[in-house]
Amino acid sequence: xASPAVRTRxxxxxxxxxxxxxxxxxxxxxxxxxxxKQPNDIISVPPKFVFTPTFDNYAALVMGEQRGQYxxxxxxxxxxxxxxxxxxxxxxxxxxxxxxxxAYALARFDFPLKNELxxxxxxxxxxxxxxxxxxxxxxxxxxxxxxxHLGLILAYQLITLPFxxxxxxxxxxxxxxxxxxxxxxxxxxWLGVLMRVILxxxxxxxxxxxxxxxxxxxxxxxxxxxxxxxxxxxVTVGAIQFISYEQVLWGQMAAAxxxxxxxxxxxxxxxxxxxxxxxxxxxxx
Length: 285
What we know:
Blueprint: H1 4-35, H2 39-42, H3 56-63, H4 77-108, H5 114-123, H6 130-143, H7 149-155, H8 157-174, H9 177-185, H10 190-201, H11 203-219, H12 222-227, H13 235-238, H14 250-270, H15 272-280
Helix pairs in contact: 1-14, 3-14, 4-7, 4-8, 4-11, 5-8, 8-11, 9-10, 11-15
């Protein structure tokens, strides 16, 4: 039987964990409740926790028409959602295509200034976005990339490419060197080793890298805010379109936030086992 001191410690840990859970989950729950409220319930003081739920806010995202006491809302949120999907998938695919050979070279090849080059890649994650966005804006205006999906996909490489290279580099280094040497003896070139040995064994790490990179792209706000127009806005920028000089459509904004969070939630649940396995690769050597 546990001693009183151990029981007290367990109770304190459980209470602290519960408080942390509530602190973390409450904003999401509040947004969900707001998305189900009528306008009068949203602005009521004190806040209402018991109310008659409605799905008008979600319908307004698609219909874009006046529904009862709702003002006319933005009908192009589905376009914003499609833009986010195109840009995020395109940015992650391009990053993966470029990062796999780069990460393999940094993990397995020896050449001058290898570690310095790896640090340079990572340093792009440390630089404030404003240092890139102004030059990018001027270049995009000149070359016709402003307000295009391709322009945003290229800009997102500043977010995803350094991260992808460093993640894949660590996963590739976890593959035993003896396996690579055995494949080389069997006649595989470096490309054959990469395609037939390294990539299959690193698939959990690649999966978690793709998922995290997709989330980074999906949640990006600053770059599309400066480099996109209404035709290419993603959901992060599209959600604030419900703010106007006349009013703030809190219900529709909350509904847009919930809808925007669903792809990440569904994707994470679908590949949860790969996330756990990928994040633990390299934990023990």
